[in-house]
Specification:
Blueprint lengths: L13 E4 L6 E2 L13 E3 L3 E6 L5 E7 L5 E2 L6 E5 L3 E6 L6 E6 L3 E6 L13 E4 L5 E6 L6 E6 L4 E5 L4 E6 L7 E6 L5 E6 L3 E6 L5 E6 L8 E4 L5 E7 L5 E7 L8 E6 L5 E6 L4 E6 L4 E7 L6 E8 L6 E4 L11 E8 L3 E8 L15 E2 L7 H5 L9 E2 L31 H42 L1
Parallel strand pairs: 2-6
Antiparallel strand pairs: 1-30, 2-30, 3-4, 4-5, 5-7, 8-9, 9-10, 10-11, 12-13, 13-14, 14-15, 16-17, 17-18, 18-19, 20-21, 21-22, 22-23, 24-25, 25-26, 26-27, 28-29, 29-30, 31-32
Amino acid sequence: MSRFVRNSKFRHVFGTAAKKDLCFDGVRPSRTAHDTNLIKANSQYLGVCWEAGGGGAFAVFDQTKDVGKVSPTPPLFTGHKAAVLDLDFHPFNDYLIASASEDCTVKIWQIPEELKESQDTPLSTLAGHKRRVGAVLFHPTADNTLATVGGDLVIKLWDIEAGVAKVDIEAHHTDLINSIDFNYNGNLMVTSCRDKQLRIFDVRSGKLVQQTESHQGVKGSRCLWLGDSNKIATTGFSRASDRQMAIRDVNDLDNPIYSDNLDTSAGMLMPFYDEDCHILYLAGKGDTTIRYFEVTDEKPHIHHISNYSGSDPSRGVAFVPKRAVNVNEVEIGRAYRLTTSFIEPISFKVPRKSELFQDDLFPEATSGEAPMSCAEFFGGKSVDGPKKISLENGFVPGARKDVSFKSVLTEEVKDDTPKNEKEYREAWAKLKAEVTDLQNKLTQKDIQIRVLEQKITTLEGGN
């Protein structure tokens, strides 16, 4: 019996790890239990949440100059008072990076041209969350616009140049927010939450647009907007703790167009999407493999291509922007896989014999130029999406830009969340005393009300 083989130019994509001397050996990623990727990448650098005592820190490595054995004492960014939980590179300035921390603040840093000493003075500090900040994500089309996710169940949209929160998205999530992502033009935001709901918000107004039930497992979930389509990918767990993947169309959010139970592993699945090749990558925490699928408009919408298999379990994964891939080697994607002590570059390629530029594989990709300013975006301007650039001439690093952020005095918010059993007992005793005090006050008020009622009754009887 003949077997139908789907025709696709990405059918034979394969992943290859770099040689050991081109990896990063001896890294010390943070041991935080917070659900984060721990690693981020842009076209030139890698950022890694670092294990450091006496406060929070992260490291930045040049992707070409710093390969090999990492120094036991590398230069770090050390301005936070507690562990760094998440990082994100500025999409329009390769030398800026944002860090989120348990100390309830977000800091914006400039990466020096020669990073030889630790940095402890950020360009700006954004304070306003009342609990730890677990995620940061830059806007895809508006310059100097950053979203931050707090343990206070609030998402803030910041103008980082002015140090001002433009929008607060609050009073919607009832449990910890697991992940956020913008749509292609940045007008909408999708969120996944531990309350098992998937929500879509209007970014400018902060208003809830749509909401539906998502994965029903007790563990966390992730969400990802699939490029310029109306599709959203989610990963999570079923009630039986099976790892799941689903694809939804925003025009019918309640009914997934694709859903599948993948396996019974315990690690969170981290999704990544190549909007140019329409390839969805899934990397599981604690897994040694990265699965990748081609996404199509036709049913069943998802087609498994292959798996990359490594040796050590993953702590986190990051992909470089498409404009940074090596088109001469027909590299359609490059990931950096973080383990307990190692960062492994993985190149995903399409086998081609021709040495000419493969324009069918490399359409114009997202450039590093902002389509609009933060003020224009919040003033109502909309664009179709990010600006594009041809990859035919290969990767050209972005020029270093001078930045002059306003010095904004912000009040550091103390995180009073109990950290151990003793603090929880003290907090419980304090709350119990406050409840008792309130009950006594209510009793006194009740007595006063009864006395007044009796006086009124006496006065009415005398009349």
